[in-house]
Design brief:
Elements: H1 2-23, H2 26-38, H3 42-54, H4 60-76, E1 78-87, E2 90-100, H5 102-115, H6 129-142, E3 146-158, E4 161-164, H7 169-175
Antiparallel strand pairs: 1-2, 2-3, 3-4
Helix pairs in contact: 3-4, 4-6, 5-6
Length: 181
């Protein structure tokens, strides 16, 4: 019986180690990164809350609307890993993402503001940013167009663990569907 338990324990340990190693690849780390967006991981929500809180043009209702808009955006984000290149303790993973294309909508709403400024003035004739923000968020919610981007994400191996390097600003805007092309 003891011999069987030792063999079973050895199999469990080896299987666990092997599974851990399978999860410690550059591709798996990138997949986990995007899966965190799709599942609205706590860290993703914390970052979204921070962005929403820092936006000066949002009122309380705008903050809630924008947060819900981006949560839906993250859940609908799709990705497909295309390639993985490892060079020692560095790696690059090419991944194609498909996201809602908010860029076109942003440009259109800004142009609409420029062409129709009177629609966003209060009863005293003074520009009211909350009126524009309400219009802007309404149009973002209506956006259906999708866009695909290919990102080359870099990773570094630290203490035998692959870690995703900081995402550059351009790739971050692509992930959020707000890359100006």
């Amino acid at each position: 019986m003891k011999k069987l338990m030792v063999i079973l324990f050895t199999v469990i340990v080896l299987t666990g180690c092997e599974k851990g190693n399978l999860m410690n690849t550059p591709t798996k780390k990138v997949e986990m990164f995007f899966a965190n967006y799709q599942s609205l991981d706590d860290e993703v929500i914390r970052q979204l809350d921070k962005i929403v809180a820092e936006e000066e043009n949002f009122n309380t209702e705008n903050r809630a609307d924008y947060k819900e808009l981006m949560k839906k955006h993250y859940q609908n984000l799709t990705y497909d890993v295309k390639d993985e290149k490892i060079d020692g303790d560095t790696a690059t993973v090419s991944v194609e993402i498909e996201v809602t294309d908010y860029t076109k909508t942003i440009k259109e709403t800004e142009q609409y503001l420029a062409d129709h400024p009177e629609e966003f003035k209060d009863e005293k004739g003074i520009y009211d940013s909350s009126l524009f923000m309400n219009y802007h968020l309404k149009k973002l919610k209506e956006t259906k167009d999708k866009v695909k981007y290919t990102l080359d994400l870099t990773l570094s191996k630290v203490d035998d663990e692959w870690k995703l390097d900081s995402i550059n600003d351009m790739d971050e805007r692509k992930i959020h569907g707000m890359y100006v092309y």
